[in-house]
Amino acid sequence: MLAPQRSTFDTAILAGVAAAVMMAIAPVSAAHAEEKKMERTITVSATGTAEAEPDRARITSGVVIEAPTAREALSQNTQAMTKVVAQLKEKGIEAKDIQTASFNVEPVMDYHKDGQAPKLRGYRVSNQVVVLVRDLANAGAVLDQMVTSGANQIQGFAFEVSKAETLKDEARKEAVANALRRAKLLAAAAGAEVGDVIQISEEVSSEGPAPYVTARFAKAQSAPAAPIERGTATLEARVTATWALK
């Protein structure tokens, strides 16, 4: 059975309805496109700082031993490091504040300039710990104790601010204020005004507000406690903010 055919009149009506619908949709789409096109924003990055006094420190120290065999080097290193850790605990450093940072066993080679094959001289064992000193007044005494008890390498000394995250809030406020000030300045220069804030993000990074020192000692010697000057740490916050333009 053949399907009924539409009349020319019906076809004309359907075409007219479709055209009307398309004409109704077109202005709406154009309006949305125009609205999106006209949305203007300004994005500014700025920093803020706050001063704080360090109240603790982290010391990276350890023992490096060379011996003809790996077993000898390991045995001597273990004895020396055990003594260092024991002395630290006697000095009042809690076990939770002593953490192994690295442990290495490696061959020590002698290289000849005449092109001969390198010769094995022995083995080197290195064991390092990071010690958190919560009472900064004792930092110099702790350093002295570590060297006296057998540590022959100091890899780093870093000051820290224990409440840095809270103290940094002032730096964050200053960063936002600086960003808004710059946004208003730039907008005014372009003949516009700053409207509502659209987005604010903070750039988070690790901080090292500390002098870093490296020292190696031939042997432990009795000496006065090393002088430690804490100085002042600068806490910095960086934000990026976007505002609408009026």
List the helices and strands and how they pair.
Layout: H1 8-38, E1 41-52, E2 56-67, H2 70-90, E3 98-110, E4 119-133, H3 139-148, E5 153-160, H4 164-167, H5 169-189, E6 194-203, E7 215-216, E8 233-245
Antiparallel strand pairs: 1-8, 2-4, 2-5, 3-4, 5-7, 6-8
Helix pairs in contact: 2-3
Write a structural description:
The chain has five helices and eight strands, in the order αββαββαβααβββ. With 246 residues, the chain is α+β, with helices and mostly antiparallel strands. The protein has a domain at 53-160 and 218-236: Alpha-Beta Plaits, CATH 3.30.70. A hairpin with an 8-residue loop joins strand 3 (98-110) and strand 4. Helix 2 packs antiparallel against helix 3 (139-148). The longest helix has 31 residues, at 8-38. The radius of gyration is 35 Å and the shape is elongated.
Side by side, the strands of the main sheet go 3-4-2-5-7
In total, the number of strands is 8
Give helix % range.
25-40%
What value does the average pLDDT take? 83
Task: Bin the strand percentage.
Answer: 25-35%
